[in-house]
């Protein structure tokens, strides 16, 4: 029995009001080349250009800005990197201390940026026996701090959902109505928030989660209508999308609102990063490029159907980026 | 005696009307990190996101779309790369054949993209005795084609000036008024067009040309109030800004309207490219990054003065980009 109420359109709109002037309203871009490849108008929500380089700031600020008075113990979060930066920046903006539990093998740029926002970083071993969630909870309890979960929280979901609000409004401003929306899916918070807003505003829109082929927990869970886990021991270039299983709240939303899911290989993700470099001139991290990869790899027939995709983050190490853009162009 | 009339604000506005729905209205971005470094609000005109990956499409389309009937001989241009792509794409859109004279050592991505827009590429040796302009003129005469100059043409200048129009309008929409504008300068067409629009719309705005230290012809010419040449045999990472001397028309405008000029070293340009990768998540080519480099290297005191910069293009080879982002971060 789930006791937490799910966020609705009003919750996303309230989050948008809190984020006004704090988060960047990221542009909705278009590329003639991508339109020609897809055979459809493709609207690119460049959330790479968000404060902290990913969408995670939206949910973090929506959550942290609502903490009650007396939250001087600050906040604690666990994250592979983008949530860490989002929480650190939001806490700094709210004048609260932040401690972040991060995997020791997180991209160096994400670790450095998290520290750059004034947060303390506590490392755990991703492949060890230590449970990062328990470590974060113990740290929060010791410090009297609030735990800011990465996705399974109504305020986080509503904050990320402001991306969906902006897609709807920005599309309308250019006389476009997305029939299809593709968004990356890790724990599922961002796509759940977007689906909450978009299905309320655009009747009939088909929203698809995109996951790495070896971390397709949501895709399989959607098909089975129950939360399934990824087998242990797998890895992917998409460090931001390596969660073990869909969230409880996020899956309750996604199972009801999503049209389905798609998967992409790491090689397809690298090709999409290279395409974004070469044609779109955007820096997109692996996990942020999966929706673009799904289009470029032809995983869904878009012909004639206006499509919006979320490019969710751009925090990628130079070596990882250089390796992707050095690969020979596929035809 | 110069017989060609210089473009005015009305010419830039007419160009904007021709470009509506053809060129992309590129976003004016902001970065909290860059604002903090500059001590001022910095508005980033991301012309990297323009059709063909640089601003050059604007001028080329403004020119080519006005060619008289009977222009079936098509167009010929000479260019290190970005003008080539702009002309090729504009000609393709207008249904005209294009032949482009390019240096044999132009970035491979610029050559490939030019061919991708259906243009024929004719190579010349940048360090040889062959004069690219004469080669282009002979080719145009042989084919009955129109020569589309890279910068020293009123229609080209007016087309590039639509960047200035957009900066003025987009700034106003966010309650900002630039006191300072920094823009890259090669032949000077883009900054001349921007200055034409911006000085008419924002009284007192101080516009500075930014050039590579070893190709500072405009900076020195502005100081001397006469057109000076760069010494031969020099090179720079900024392949888009390697012209020998300011244009006749462009310098007539720039000498009258610009506040002055700044120079940046290749190393400062690489640092700016790395910063754009790491913080802004934008792919900027060397020549497109000089204005950003001038801010990051502290070449001008912006404190408290709202500043707009043009990041003019993103067509850079993977190896050049990888080398820039691999450099150690400067503090």
Describe the structure.
Two copies of one chain form a homodimer. By secondary structure, the first copy, chain A, is α/β, with parallel strands linked by helices. The first copy, chain A, has two domains: 9-55 and 155-326, Rossmann fold; 57-152, Rossmann fold, CATH 3.40.50. Chain A has helices spanning 9-19, 32-38, 56-64, 82-94, 108-116, 132-143, 154-160, 162-173, 189-201, 217-224, 248-257, 266-280, 290-296, 318-326, and strands at 28-29, 42-46, 75-78, 98-103, 120-124, 146-147, 180-184, 206-212, 260-264, 307-311. In chain A, strands 1-2-10-7-8-9 form a six-stranded mixed beta sheet, with helices on both faces. Chain A has a four-stranded parallel beta sheet with strand order 5-4-3-6, sandwiched between helices. In chain A, strand 4, helix 5 and strand 5 (120-124) form a beta-alpha-beta unit. In chain A, helix 3 runs parallel beside helix 4 (82-94), helix 3 (56-64) crosses helix 7 and helix 7 packs across helix 9. The radius of gyration of chain A is 18 Å and the shape is globular. In chain A, 59% of the residues are buried. The mean pLDDT of chain A is 94. Chains A and B meet through helix 12 and helix 14 of A and helix 12 and helix 14 of B.
